[in-house]
Amino acid sequence: MKSIVNWLVTLGSVCQLLLFAQSASSQTPQTADPGLVYYWSFDKPLEKGTDSFIGNLEGVPGVHGMALKFDGFTTCIERKLNNVKKPVGALTVESWIALAAYPWAWSPIVDCSQDELTGFFFGISNEGHLGMKIASGNSWQELETETSLPLGKWTHVAAVFIPGEKVTIYINGEEAVSRKIKGNFIPTLYGSLTIGRNAQSKTWVERQLTTENSFFFLDGILDEVKIYDRIKSWEEIRKEFASAGNLPAPALSDRKLFPIGAHGTGNFGAFYTKLDYYKEWDDLWRVSDVPDVFVRFDESPVQFVFWRGTSYVPCWVSENRTWYTNEWLETWGSDVSSCAEPLMDRMCKFSHVRIIENTDARVVVHWRYALSDAFDVIAGHKENPRGEWCDEFYIIYPDQVGVRKMELHYTMPERKHDWEEQIVLLPPGKHPEEVIDKKSVTLVNMKGETADYTWDDKLQVDMPDPKGANMSYVNFKSTYKPFFIISPNPVETVEGKWASPYFRTYAANMAQGYREDPSPSAYGWWNHWPVVQIPGDGRWVVKADHPSHFNLTTFVQWNDYTHTKTTRTRIMLQGMTAKGAKDLVPMAKSWLQAPNLTIKSSAYQGGAYDQSERAYVIVKKTAAAKASLDFTLEASKESPLLNPAIIVRNWGKQHAEIRINGQKIGEGKNFRQGIVSNSDSDDLIIWLRLDSEKPIGISIINH
After folding, report:
1. Could you read off the pLDDT of 358-371 as tens digits, one per residue?
2. Which of 336, 360, 418, 606 is most deeply packed, by most CB within 10 A?
3. What is the CB-side half-sphere exposure of residue 539 using CA atoms within 13 A?
């Protein structure tokens, strides 16, 4: 058994390591096939030779001896064609391949072509079809299979060109497709032969974005790459396939699930950590051990995750690891390509996350990002060189419910923005229908009236029912389901004017004609985000081989919470719940119609409810005083009390004792507190598990 040799190259430097990859006459005995022009066995470590290696390299067990893993982002072999032997006349190319995912566009096993005028290209399409493209006579001939190569399995592939006769593609020793051709092979005399990446950059055209100078990389493992200047017969190719015997499992990285933080019975709180996905993806990142943030809840398996793989777009994660987000700020216009939004920031150049508060009572996380396009151009840069940015604050409580505060720093003249899309994220191999009911979204109004929306070809764009809806509940196939609540008030902004919040669906087969070919799902299903590093926008899923996302609603609009000459702010209540859609109504009332608070202690003032904090704010008049605080919360049926939070400014550093209707409540699951030290005060944060439609008296004692 040959030893395993790991060949690693630091990402970021275009390293010119030279491969020990020689022609057959010097690598094999003298009795070897004289028609074998090039042969890469990958059995020896890299050393001086005729090839250059670029990117992250790793040797792994192969079909015969060792193989080379291509990371899908950087790995490439390049051989300059000057002064080396070239195949002429008849041609055979073959290899063993184990794919982890299909490329974004045609990516080669071997590319020895130039401008589709000379040479040949043998590779894989974005749907996993195996293709042979070759210059023959006075034309460029293209041939591809109708079926896709399997993922996660070793496959033997070959193509044979017979001058003036035909081109044939073989898979696992059997003919897959063939076509007649005319003329002789026209070889490429200069330039490069590449393995695992195109020899020349391409222009990548997707529905919403065109990216010039793009390279496409293989994501998988190659072994025994051979090029002959003769015709290999079907019997020889079949014998080559059979010689492998029982094929080993390819050493591909597991990427079926997105990473989450440490879970179990740990405390509620926010934590800095490093969320590893799979080795090849992780190796791209130049980060410390604490680049990511997650919020854990001690009474449920739900998590709230800020991860580099989503460009720090925060996601709620259910107990069965279904990911969901309420989107971000997005805009568009002539000053950017396609659209400007944080998911375009593939390397997190402008997107950052930090923990502001972290106590037993609540967590506050700050996410800041630029509204940039896929080429790092920030929207509004023509009006203001700094462009448009957003500060989002997430105030999260132990009941996995929190306020999302979105503060947009906009440019003039004021442009339209998309503030909310309900989006579900999927790992490779998952389809939308596996994680969500067909009746996917339930809208609810303050009266408790509901309407279910089913995603199918008949789904309409507008979501008019129930009238005055301001709550959305997503019907995941899980115990915990995501939701959000917004103000039901009339809307009048630059985006439009409506009598109440505006909801609309987002579906792949909508009448707007977003695509002509049938979608593999009724949902608007894309895979240009998350995780993806290549610039792109608007890539519809054709195979579930990459991480993806699908949209439920889009361009949801509600009124601004505040609006100044430079900022617009909106808030929503969001989280995950194990209750039903109608059960959102008491929560909405407790937030939008919070009970009045009456202070009975002369040492304190304030007591107003701040929706943007989901908390009552009280101020101690003299910080040094140790006076106790007594107040009443005037709860009623229309203004219920549900898990209130109280902020006492200038409280001091000491913890508090609390009594509810005269009864002492011990600190624990139902009473949580924390001290937040600011530059000019020490504030007390209290969270209570309470559910009442009757007035309640509360005493907070300062010992």
Report:
1. 999 999 999 999 99
2. 336
3. 25
